[in-house]
């Protein structure tokens, strides 16, 4: 008997019993989210540091900010194909993440840079009530 078929049947039975959205609560535990992000907040500023290794073309990364939401999409591709995998802890692939920010941010004062596999996004608190979704451009910082 195929063990993967058994696993699929087992998951379908759990979905029927607990509901289709049952597994959503376990996504971060079963399959860690990519890219990883650290967020730091001061009184009027948010600094997001996002781990995206091997990004050669900044156009492959999309960052949008809308009021109090940060949206990330792109691909992490380390482009290493020689040999067989012995251990693989750096997650790769297509990603989409939506992160709720601790407060609304200004659309006209966003700075994003990329260096050494990390994206740094600096956001500033919004005092006004007007908002709209804005594309964020990322600048490549050269090694000194």
From TrEMBL:
Short name of one Pfam family: HSP20
Family annotation (SUPFAM superfamilies): HSP20-like chaperones
Gene3D superfamilies, per the entry: 2.60.40.790
CDD domains, per the entry: ACD_sHsps-like (cd06464)
PROSITE patterns named in the record: SHSP
Domain SHSP: 28-141
InterPro entries: A-crystallin/Hsp20_dom, HSP20-like_chaperone
Assigned protein family: Belongs to the small heat shock protein (HSP20) family.
Record protein name field: Hsp20/alpha crystallin family protein
Species name: Oceanobacillus zhaokaii
